[in-house]
Amino acid sequence: MNGTSQQGSRVIWVSYSQPAAERISADLSALGHHVICEPATSIRQLIPQAPVMGDTPKVLIFLSQHAVSGYVEYLRKPSHDAAQMIAIGSATASALARYGIVARTPDDSSSEAILKTDVVKGLQTDDLAWVLSGEGGRDLVENELGKSCRLERFVLYRRERRWPSCAMETLPEVIWVGSVQGLQQVCEILNHFKIPLQATVVVPSQRVANAASELGFDSILISLNNDADSIRSVLRKT
Q1: Identical fold at 11-40+162-235 and 44-159?
Q2: Topology, domain 11-40+162-235
Q3: Which residues contact 117 (CB under 8 A, 6 or more apart)?
Q4: Greatest CA span in the chain, whole angstroms?
């Protein structure tokens, strides 16, 4: 396997699921890096259960861009226009904007930051909040909100493991990882191709960083956002 790259550039594997993989890959390619765009997971959309509580939610919290299309197709109602919309990050907010939905984002893309927003902190016992997310993942927002208001969670997608479309013939120096499930599949793929865990992994949260450390990665960086400026910043640390 070839693990070399041109001076100043790096071989970077973007293992995020789509559509984030293409967006991150495009930003990295524009910076002159050799990019392997091979998602380690794919997204299967799920049909959510019908709402149990009949009244309109005061707040809708979207924990992933993958939850947006299912919400629009199965759950969106005109009465929701009066509700507060919170997106965990800019990609999720952009996905909502494509349907004409304006959402606010926290200071950084994390469940902890969502819980610190004025809207969430101001919820009362009788208020209804919806959490729209995927199968598995963190339950922090759901667990904390359940202590202060009425809550419904809707599971709108599932991450499924995916194998590369071709053999990985170039050793990645940096691996962009989007979730614990994706990280686990990255390890499976590396093991399959007998690639040692020597690459730097870039992860979106401390939770995924902890998982990377437990799996045996030594070089781990956290990038809370994946906009062009954040990508440049994290690459300066590699």
Answers
A1: yes
A2: Rossmann fold (3.40.50)
A3: 86, 104, 106
A4: 60
Encode pLDDT of 86-137 as tens digits.
999 888 999 999 999 999 999 888 889 999 999 999 999 999 999 999 998 7
**Residue 100 to residue 28: CA distance in whole angstroms:** 29
- Measured over the CA atoms of residue 94, residue 100, residue 101 and residue 106, the dihedral's sign is positive
Q: Identify the residue whose tokens are 């781990």.
A: 220
Q: Which H helix or E strand runs over 15?
A: none
Length of the chain: 238
Tell me the whole-structure pTM to 2 decimals: 0.82
Q: For residue 86, what are its two tokens?
A: 């919170």
User: Which pair of structure tokens corresponds to residue 182?
Assistant: 């994706």
What is the C-alpha to C-alpha distance for residues 133 and 70, in angstroms, rounded to an integer?
Answer: 10
Classify burial at 224, counting beta carbons within 10 Å of its beta carbon; exposed 0-12, middle 13-18, buried 19 or more: middle
